[in-house]
Structures are given as C-alpha cells and as structure tokens.
Amino acid sequence: MTTGSHEPRDDGAAGIDRRDALKLVGGSAIAVALAGCAELLEDEDDAIEDADVPDEPIEAGLQTFLEGAPAVLGVQAEMGAETAVRRINDNGGVAGREIELDVIEEGEEALENYQQFVDDGKDVTFGPISSGNHEAMVPEINAQGVINVATDGTVTTLYEEDHPPEDNTYSFRFQNHDVMEALAAAVEAVEVLGVDEIDTYAGINPGYAFGFDEHEVFSAGIEQLTGAEEVYDGFPDLGADDMSTHIEAVNSEEPDVLFSSCWGGDATLLLEQGHGAGMFDNIELMVGPVLYGSANDLSEGLVDGPIRSGSRNFYWDEPTTDRWSPAADLFEEVVDEYDAVPTAHFMSGYGAVTAWATAAEKAVRLLGRWPEQDELAELLVGHGFHTPAGYHTMADDHQCYSNAHFGELAWSDDLDAAVLENVTVYAPEEVSPPQGKPSLEWIGGW
Amino acid sequence: MIDSFFVHTLNGLWYGFILFMIASGLTIIFGVLGILNLAHGELYALGAFVVFSVVGYATGLVASPEDPVSAVVFGVVVLAAALVAAAVLLPVGAFIEAVFVRPIYEREEVYQLLLTYALLLIFVDVMKFGWGTSPLDAGTYGGLNQIPTTELAGFGYPSYNIVAMLVGLAVFAWLVWFFDRSKTGRIIRATAINRDMATAIGVSTDRTFTLVFAMGAFFAGFGGAMVSIGPQTAFLEMGLDPLILSFVVIVVGGLGSLKGAFVGALLVGVISRWAIWLYPAVELAAPFAVMLAILLVKPEGLFGTWGEIE
Amino acid sequence: MSRLSPLEERDGETVVRVPLTNGLTLTKGQTALTLVGILVLFGLPFLAGIVGLSWGRLFRGLLFGMAAVGLNLLLRHTELVSFGHAAFFGGGAYAVAVLAAHLDVSEGLLLLLAAVIVGTLLAAFIGYFVAGYVDIYFALLTLAFNAVIFATVFRSGFFNYNDGLAVRVGGDNPTLFGLGWTDLGYDLVLYYTTIVLMLVMLLLMWRLVHSPFGRALDAIGQDRTRARFIGIPVERYVWISFTISGLYGAFAGGVYALQRLHVQPEPTLYVFVSGEILFMAILGGFTTLVGPLIGGVLLVYLLEATRFSFYYYHAPIGIILLAIVFFMPKGIMGSLPDILAGLSRRASDPGLLGDDLQTIGSSIRRSLSRATTTVRILVFGVR
Q: Domain containing B145 — which CATH number?
C-alpha cells in the first residue's frame, strides 16, 4: 500500500472490517472519529455513559504562532487542533464533555502564556511551536502539574537528556524529535542518487538552534552513509530577506546534494532566489525536511527541479486518499473549512489534541470518573492512538515516535497546489535512535 | 573565485539599493522634521501588502510573460503597480503627520519615539485586519526574471535584481534633482535649515511638514513594494528589521544626507554580503559591525550634515 | 522642632525628612504615596490575585521597570537616549544562566552578584566608547553594540543559540541564602529579597541625582560645552553614569533569570527590548524617579496580557500609549500631580467642567480645519 520500499509500522485500515476497526482504535466514539472512521461507529459506549464526569466543558488552551513568518507553521497547527476539537465535539465530546479551545499567539512568551493558561483554570494546554520556548516551559509544566502536549518544539535532547522521564511527569510532545527528519533526508538522498554518486554536499539552514541541529545530524548521517565531503555550510538568518550569498556559494561549489531545513518564508525565499540564480542546474538533488510545510505558499515555478521534501509524520496523501478514506475525508474537510492543504504541522495540532483526548476517555473508562492530572499523565505514557496519519505511540520518554515521509516536490494542476510524489515512508526505528541513546552516538554506529 | 567575487559584489549592490530605497524615506523625514519615525518599518510593510493586492489585479490585465516583449510589458505593469502601492502611502503619511505628529513638535523629542511606537503597534493590527496573518507572495519574481538583461551580456543574473538596482538609482537621481533643483525641494530644504526664517518669507511650515512626511511614507511604501515584488514575501513583522537597518544606513551615511544614505546603503549592502561569503557566522551581526566601525572612526558618519538635506 | 522628628518646615510647607538621604525631603502627600507604594509592593504576592492580576507578571514588570530606572539616569539628567540597555539586562540574565548551566553554581544570591558584576562591566566597556557621543549617534551606537551582542549569543552554541539556557542545576531551583525552597517559597523569598534591594537602590538613585554629581549630570545634559567650561569632566561623568545605569539593568536582568529560570536571547537581548525599556521610562514619566518603574509594570503587563483579551492585541497597547502621549504630557507619574490638582479644582468648582467642554469643542474644530488644509495640500500641492 505504500509506494516506497519502506512499510510503515501500521498500514491503516484499508481492508479491515468494522469490528476490527473499532477494536483497533479503542472502540470509543471520539477515538473512532479522530481516527477518521466515524461511519464505523455503531455501539453506544456504556462504561463512559455510567462514569461520574463533570458537566462543564473542558477548557483547553493552545499557543502557536498566529502572526508573521512562523505563522506558516503555526496556523496549520491551529487548524489541526481546531479540526480535532470540532470532531470531538460533533461526536459528543470527551466522555460527554465538550472541549472549549482558546488559541493564543505564542510569541516569545510561551512560558508566560502557559502560566496564564494555568491561572485561567485550563484543564489541558497544547503548544508551543518553538523548540526554545518548549524547553523553557517543561520545568514549569512539571511544577504546575497541568498537562501540556507540545505540538512541535522538536529540540533533540529535550526528552533524552534534559528532562528524562524520571524528572518529567506532565510534559509531552506529539512530534518526534528532529533527528528523524534530518536523518530521513540523508537516507532519502542515498536512496535517490545512490551511495557512489554522492561525493560532496552543502547545507543552507536557518541560523538558529533548529537549523544548526538539523545540519549537524544530516552531516553525521550522510558522511556515515557515503563518506561525502561537506563543501559549504551557510546559515542565513531566520526570516531572512536575502539568501543570494549562500546561493552563489552553492553555485560555485556545485555539490551533489544540498540540504536545507529552511521553512516558511525562508523556504520560499530560498527556492525563489535559487531558481532565479540557476542553483538547481548546479546540484544533483536538494533535500529539505520541512520544505513542504510551505505547501500553501509554493507556486508551480518553485517546485520545479530535483527537490525532495520531507513531511514529518504526516503527508495527507499517504496512504493514498484513493484507498484510505480517513485521509480523504480529512483532506476534504480541511480544504472546505480553511481553503488550505494540510501539512505536517496540521497533524502536529491534530495529533496533540487527539493524544490527550483519547487518553482522557480511556482514563474515564478505566476509573469510572474524570481523571486527575497525574492519573492522566500516567496513562498518557505508552498510550497508543490513531489519526489519519496512522498509529502513534506516546513512548516512555514522553514523545511520539512516528513514521517519516519523504517525497518529490511536484505540482498538481487539479489541486492547484504543491504535492509530494513517489512518497517513501520510513519507520521510526530506521531514522530515530532507540530511546535513551544520544543521536550522534547512534549514527556513528551505523 | 573571481566570478564569485563579481556575483557577491553584485548581490551586495542589489541589497544596498534595496536598503537605500527603504532608508530614503526615513532620512527625508528625519533630515527635515527631526522626527525619528519608528513606524517607518510599518509604512514599508504596508507598501509590501498593498502591492500584493494591486499586483494581483494588475497582472491579470496582461499576458503572463512568455517571450522578451511580454516580459518587458509585465515588468512595466508590475513597476506601475509598485508606484500605485506607494501612492496609497501618501495620504496615510499626510494623515499621520497632521493628526498625530503635529501636536507634539514642541514637546520633548522622546515623546515622538513613544508616539511613533504606538503607531507602529496600531499599524500591525491594521495590516492584520486587512491582509490576515499569513505571509503573502506577490508571485512576480519569476516573471520579472524573464526580462532579458544580463543574458544579453552573456552571463546569467536575476533580472529582478538588475531592475531593482536601476529603479533604486532612479529614485536616488530623482531625489537629488528634487532637493537640488525643484522649487518645492528648495523650500523644504530652506525650512529644514531655518524654520523661523522660512515662515518669515511666507512658507507654510505646516504644509511643508505634511508634504515631507507624506513623501517619506511614499518612499517607505515604495521600498516595501519593490521588496514584495521580488523573491520575498510580505508578512506582519517584516517592518522590524528594515527599520533597524534603515537607522544603520542613515547613521553610517551621516544624518539627513541623501548622498550619505545612498553611499551608506551600498557600503552596508556590499560589505555585509562579502562578510557573509567569507565568514558566514557573522551574518546577523554584519551590518551593525559595519556601523560600529564607521562611527567609531568617523563620528559624524560619512557625510554628516545634521538637519539639512543635501 | 525636635531633631528627632522627621517633620520640618521649609518654604512654608511641612515636609518629611527621609532617613539615610542626607537631608532629602518629601511633602506630606508624597510621603503618603510612598508609604502606600511600599505597602503595595510588600503585599503584592497576596493582593495581586485578589484583584485578578498575575503576581509573576507584575514582578517581571517591576524588573524591566528597574532597568528603565537605570536608563532614566541617562535620559533625565544627561539627556542621552539609549537604545541599547537590553545589553545590560540580558548580560545580567545570561551571567546567571551561564554560571548555572556551565559551572553548576546553584546559590541564587551568588548568581545575582555575578549578574551585577558582568552587566556593569559590560556597561563600563560600552560606555567607554559611547560617552563622547550625543543625540542620535549615541542612541544608534548603543543600539549597534546591543545588536552585536544579541547576534553573538543567538548564534553561539555556548549560549545554546536561541533555545537558551536553563537556570537549574540538576533540575532544581537555585538555593537562596544557602537553603533549598519549595517552588512557592522560592518565588516569595526571591521577591522579597528583590523588593528590599530595589527600595535600597531607588533610595541610592534618589540620593545620587540630588548629589553634586547628579547636578553635574544635569549641567552636562543642558549644555556640554558649558559644562566642560566650568570644569566638569564631561566624558568621564557620562561614562560613570552610563555604568551606573547599566548596573540597574544588570541587577534587574539577574533577578529576571532567577525568576524565569530559563534565559533566551529574544526576550532579554533583542534591540526591541531596549526600545521597550526606553518606552517604559518615557510613558511612566521620565522626569520622575519612580515613573519608569510604573511604566515597566504597565508596558510588560500590556505586552503579555492583551493577547488573552483581544484578537487584535497590538492596537489596544498602541491606543493606550497614544492616550498617554496626548493626555498625560509628562508621562503617568509626571502628570499625576496636574491631574490630581485638576480633579480637586473641579470637585470644588463644577463650573470648570463647562470650560472643559468648550476646550474640547474648539480643539475638535481645530483638528477638523487642519484636516481640511491637509486634504487641500494633497490635492493642490504646496504653493
């Protein structure tokens, strides 16, 4: 069912019957709805009906980037979270409780926003996007004891080294750490060009923590796989207004592979100026783990050339919408509601809400009443749930390990939008180190 | 290496011309009115957003560029759209000056900072109301690059950059002509040099100031429009960095000096592009390092002529 | 009048001598306000929640306000506008973070001392270069230094880029006075320690500006050439006042790091933070000692909180600042006496309200005619 050589860990429900589907997703109304198979539902859920659950709605807060350059990612997360909430409320809420979602600009004040959410009596909070902001929040989350499920905030060492499970109770992250996508890019480059064809590589990455991290991981990966030599590494500012210098450097070095973790406006600027300066004639392949995050800002001319993009743990057409109705339904719903193509960050928001909501309902069924924060936090560890992106598990170290998607950037006239073709799906264990193992050490052992 | 040096220098000149276009409005307003307009970056951003809307309409009227002739037509239409977008800023600038700035000329100068900061905040929401929160791409960069320019001389370089440099040069030439030769320009300079004397010989300083502020807003908007039709997108916070860089440019050049702003912009553009090429790590600091070096050596900037446009 | 009594007559008014200030005095009204202010500060952790305000946010506001008090020494007396004071605030904050993250220093007061030392040295270094400059050149030089420091921290692995550094050794809060505290205990002890130090620093600032040194700074602000002529070593004095003003920012930044326990470059070092510190001083009333403190509390509160009430959350802040510019022409604290006097006059003579209405009416008429002129200029140009 996948077009690539790598099977995802779970291949969805293309051919399974209703009972299997119900069992698979946990059987409750919202779990089924969130998995995208609402039509499968038939039984009433008795354990939930009898449970002692308060009447008032669940107050939830989401902080994400709503304005400016990072809104390209942040607004997708907002749409995702809102879509999940809409589906939950249309299906009777979490154990009968509807969710009221407050959405707030993250800005540079994620920690302060979280504190305000707690002061406002939120039952659960979601976000942020920025990894630095997430890092600042984790100790506060554990001090306050109100669960936060981060939508993004994928700094690598956060849950491995800085806040290992024994020090962390209430902070979770729906996305995998960023090692996954950078390594997937390296593997993808080798799959496409072949080991022998890659002698040199270059990087143009945004000049902040995320970009430096991604470049380091990609470099370690591609050098381990091919022995290739780095010929250029440039770090334009985040939100740059000019990348011509870096592009000219790449043009003069003519590397086989160009790696770029630029996103949002930086990604479109790089592609625009790259095309303007003929950069794609001077490289064999460009791999970018988050280029497709700008799907709604790309135009036909920009996706031209040997460019392959990642799409984190979710690409809307993988498994293909022809055969996987949850993905098709979701895509249709997002286009109708927001007039936009969902990207991986859509799933960041959707998955964060889904992780929490399905766990909360599971808790109600087990306890016969609404859970306390600590009970719910305990239940979230090891919690498995479905989204249209497939099956996810919240691992012991409080982050979800999911499939990584990579495909060729192309243009669809039907959709009038950028798409990915020939998508390859990498299972988490292929591109993420085992829990507790530092990434670079693990790559060194390939 | 030599080829690369040439391209990096061209990139620096292009960036410098863009900087000049953004900073020219700031230097006009500062040179004549003595107002440090912190909302300048937002006027620039407003130009970038307005041109997005204007271009969307205007390019619908012409064929998309296929051959050199249609590409040139396309280019002319897009530049006209940029001018229209900048023209929208004229009444905006006049309104701000007449309603908000004029009452506080007599007050301590620091209140101008607080006032223009307040305007900055309000403008952000005006644009958020008008164009939403997501970045917008005018989508004209590829089309502009179809215009034949450097290919004629036998090498490839984005035509948009060439066009932007020519436009920047035209802006500079017009401003020099305006302030040196035109009657209105001379009146403005006279008012800048001595307000009381200007009033005594029958110049309305009120009108002059309104006009100058409107002009400053026009060029801020035009800078934004020229950026927005290029490879960059228009987004809400886009005004912050150009505001700071404009400060750098006009101080490096010497306050109130157009020639200074021009030379300063090109210097900052070229030196910072060279610096990024040779020492990529300095990217974020480069323009400020240039400014520190110049000011510490030449405290008045390159062409210091305080309070007088020349 | 007895020497022990704090009251004395001066210029026909009863004034209160303030202890430890070498004979500085306050009027009765000022004394009452000061006492109320001090009481509010001490009661804040318990009062804030009652009136629905966030104590932590008010605390941060006080800290930024403290940096603004420092900046105001330059602004009010030497008449120099600094666009670079975030360098000292952030410098202090990063001194705390680096010592905790890299050298495992876990005593909060030691960290705070380090913050003050590092930030002050930074101010002395930058002050050495900028002391000879005035006006916008001074402003832009301070901005440039600030920007270079920001860029260095933002792109350096040692400072962990923009992700920043945690002020926790082994995951625990720092100790204060050598003791470990619960989370609430830590916040309270840190707050009260800060408040006491802050009051002392305000008192010292007050003494400083009324000392011969302070008068010399005023002279420099009015006319450098004349100041130099009467024998004031202008550059050296500016340098010293710049360093002192940096010290206040460094202290505030150090406490900020201890309060937030995670330091990132954007909220502490970015040049727009410098701008905000400057705006705090202006809007609070830069002609007063405590105005910048009030300005800090107000601006920080607005910047952090409006987004929870408004979708368009920048404009309300802008409108409030506009209102302050036009209706409180000397900033909040500077205009307070005029406003109070005006209110009490109207209380005793309601007839004045009629005059007010007339004034408002005529000012609206004036602005309308101004607008007409503007339109005429736009249409017909300048003739």
A: 1.10.3470
Question: For tokens 């997708």, what's the residue?
Answer: A76
DSSP string over A14-58: TT--HHHHHHHHTS-HHHHHHHT-GGG--S--HHHHHSB--SSPE
When pLDDT is cut at 50, 70 and 90, the band that residue A310 belongs to is very high
Compute the C-alpha angle B106/B111/B117, nearest 5°: 135
Q: Residue C263 belongs to what H/E stretch? A: strand C262-263
> Do the chains contact at C260 and A116, CB–CB below 8 Å?
no
pLDDT at C341: 86
Domains within chain A, CATH numbers bracketed: 18-177+318-401 (3.40.50.2300), 179-317+404-444 (3.40.50.2300)
User: Among all chains, which residue has been given the structure tokens 């470990």?
Assistant: C180
Q: Which two tokens stand for residue C177?
A: 């006075």
d(CA C353, CA C359): 10
| CA separation for the pair C348, C346 (Å, rounded) | 5
For chain C, what are the domain ranges?
A: 18-270, 359-383
**N residues, chain C:** 383
Alpha carbon distance A113, A144 (integer Å) = 13
ipTM: 0.92
* Six-digit token string for B113: 């900072």
Cα–Cα separations (whole angstroms), residue A337 to B1, C98, C300: 52, 47, 36
Is residue B302 domain-resident? Answer: no
- Could you tell me the pLDDT band of residue C380, with boundaries at 50, 70 and 90? low
Q: Is residue B284 part of a domain?
A: yes
Question: Nearest CA of chain B to the CA of C279: how many Å?
Answer: 6
Residues of chain C found within 8 Å of residue A119, distances taken between Cβ atoms: 54
Q: Are strands A307-310 and A384-387 parallel, antiparallel or unpaired?
A: unpaired
Tens-place pLDDT, residues C308-349: 999 999 999 999 999 999 999 999 999 988 888 888 888 888
Pick the closest to residue A258 from A192, A324, A319 (CA basis): A192
CB C285 within 8 A of CB C333: yes
**Cβ separation of C154 and A208 shorter than 8 Å?**
yes
Average pLDDT of the residues in C271-282: 96
Q: Per-residue pLDDT for C158 more than 80? A: yes
Write out residues 66-95 of C within 8 Å (CB-CB) of B. Answer: 75, 81
The first and second tokens of residue B75, run together, are 């280019």
Pick the range with the lowest mean pLDDT from B65-74, C4-13, C157-166.
Answer: C4-13
Query: Read out DSSP for B217-246?
Result: HHHHHHHHHHHHTTTPPB-GGGGHHHHHHH
Residue B83 lies in a domain: yes
How many domains does the structure of chain B reveal?
Answer: 1
Smallest Cα distance from C195 to chain B, Å: 28
pLDDT value at residue C124: 98
Residue A42 has pLDDT above 70, yes or no: no
- The two beta strands, A390-394 and A148-150, are unpaired
Residues in chain C within 8 Å Cβ distance of B292: 141, 144-145, 148
Q: How confident is the model at residue A442 (pLDDT cuts 50, 70, 90)?
A: confident
Residues of C in contact with A146 (CB under 8 A): none
Q: Per residue in B219-268, pLDDT tens?
A: 999 999 999 999 999 999 899 999 999 999 988 888 778 889 999 999 99
Contacts of B among chains (3+ CB pairs under 8 A): A, C
Mark which residues 168-227 of B lie under 8 Å from C by CB: 184, 187, 204, 206-208, 210-211, 214
Cβ distance B277 to A239 less than 8 Å, yes or no, reads: no
Of B235, C165, B45, the C-alpha closest to A65 is B235
Query: Could you tell me the residue range of the domain that residue B42 belongs to?
Result: 2-297
Contact C253, C89 (CB under 8 A): yes
Taking the C-alpha atoms of residue A371 and residue A348, their distance in angstroms, rounded to an integer, is: 24
Query: What is the rounded distance in angstroms from the CA atom of residue C328 to the CA atom of residue C335?
Result: 5
